[in-house]
Amino acid sequence: MALSVVMPALEMAQETGKVVSWRKKEGETVVKGEMLLEIETDKAVVEIEALGDGILSAITAREGDVVPVGQTIAWLLAAGESVPAAEQKPAQTGRRMDTAPAAASPATVNTAPRTESSAPAGKLAPKARRLAAEHGVDPASVRGTGPGGEILADDILAAAKSSGTSGTSGTLGTSGTSGTLSTVARLMAERTTESWTTVPHFFVVRDVDATKLVSLREKLAPGVQQSHGVKLTQTDLLVALVARVLRTHASMNASWTGNGIRTNSDINVGLAVATPDGVVAPVVQRADGARLGDIATRRHDLADRARAGRLQPADLNGGTFTISNLGMLGVDAFTAIIVAPQAAILAVGAIADRVVAANGQVVIRPMVTLTLSSDHRVVDGARAAQFMRDLTDALQDPEPHLD
Questions:
Q1: pLDDT of residue 316
Q2: Of the listed 353, 380, 393, 403, which one is catalytic?
Q3: Catalytic: 277?
Q4: Contact at 8 Å (CB) between 385 and 204?
Q5: Which residue among the candidates 376, 393, 397, 401 is catalytic per the annotation?
Q6: Which residues of the chain have pLDDT under 70?
Q7: Distances (CA, A) of 198 to 49, 194, 341, 343
């Protein structure tokens, strides 16, 4: 029986997906469960498995094509079987986002002419509006390919490339090289630019005595290793303690909706993870109720799959607060960009011995610098300071807080 391969809905409110690559070629035999293709959504690149056996046939979406969710992009057929008659008309596939340095305007996959219509400059998709400002593109000069002539993000990117103003690939000076960003790097660049340019950041910094935090990790690490088979890290302790402090600081666990503030019922902590292609932030769900061993296991699994490029959309969805820890790289302190629409992100530096004053004496203590970046639309300075005060107390005496 013919089995259609459709563009899957991998995220809530997802309208389209981009075909990154086909793992199988047309005419090859596919077995159920084999990796068939890679799809890019707004948050991740996801490997899609074949839902049945068959010969891959009638591919209508090429690599780089942006396709509506639910649209058939190929078929899995039995030997001698044909595509159902009702499906043999040319498919209305999505537009192509070319990656060649001298790309022209987007093209359709089928042979039918693409209908384009000009649209007023104000008729822009939100992402397209931001990209137009970022790339210096005049929307009035762009022909929209969306419904009713709406100008989409791909239209802006194509216009930027054709005019030589694209910020994703360019010449570095007179003797530099040019190249195209990886998918993960491009998504990261887009999101951080949008956050930095639209979210009113402010910063609160605290130096924290980590003596008891270090001692607690050394005390608990052998048990976690034995029971869960993973190494307990300072990041695991941070996730647990931050999540528990967030229980009494609802405003820090909130999100900006565009029209107001949404308080999140769950506490889901994202962890910034560096990969060969860029930084992603997979999420430890309901971290405030998770035990240390479970957090360590989840963190280990997410980090491994992030570096291997095998995260799923569910791994990246639902974050309400993010931690970025560069301490293992010897960084003393830094500021991090908020992962919108979250209200805040915590930047963590290295735990290192410093000379400090304690009870009127000069002593050496393991210290760590925390920098909280907050969205001033969601929280004010006093609330951010109160959160940092309570988090500092928890880090300086962590054991009672780990219920």
A1: 87
A2: 380
A3: no
A4: yes
A5: 376
A6: 11-13, 42-43, 85-127, 130, 133-134, 147-148, 163-183
A7: 37, 6, 11, 13
pTM value?
0.69
- At the second CATH level, the architecture of 117-180 is Irregular (4.10)
What are the beta bridge partners of residue 357? 362
Beta bridge partners of 57: 75
**Superfamily of domain 189-401 in the CATH hierarchy:** Chloramphenicol acetyltransferase-like domain (3.30.559.10)
Q: What's the confidence (pLDDT) of residue 11?
A: 65
Q: Residue 335 contacts by C-beta under 8 Å, 6 or more apart in sequence?
A: 201, 203, 347, 371, 373
125 contacts 153 by C-beta, under 8 angstroms: yes
Does the bond joining 366 to the residue before it have cis omega, within 30 degrees of 0? Answer: no
User: What is the CATH T-level fold of the domain 3-87, as seen in this structure?
Assistant: OB fold (Dihydrolipoamide Acetyltransferase, E2P) (2.40.50)
Q: Which of 97, 95, 46 is nearest to 71 (CA)?
A: 95
Give the residue extent of every domain in the chain: 3-87, 117-180, 189-401
42 is catalytic: no
What b-and-e string marks burial along 360-376, b requiring 16 or more CB atoms within 10 Å of the CB? eeeeebbbbbbbbbbbe
Residues 177, 182, 183, CA angle at the centre, nearest 5°? 150
Residues 6 or more apart whose Cβ sits within 8 Å of residue 46:
10, 38, 39, 40, 311, 312, 313
Helix axes 292-307, 234-246, angle to 10 degrees: 120
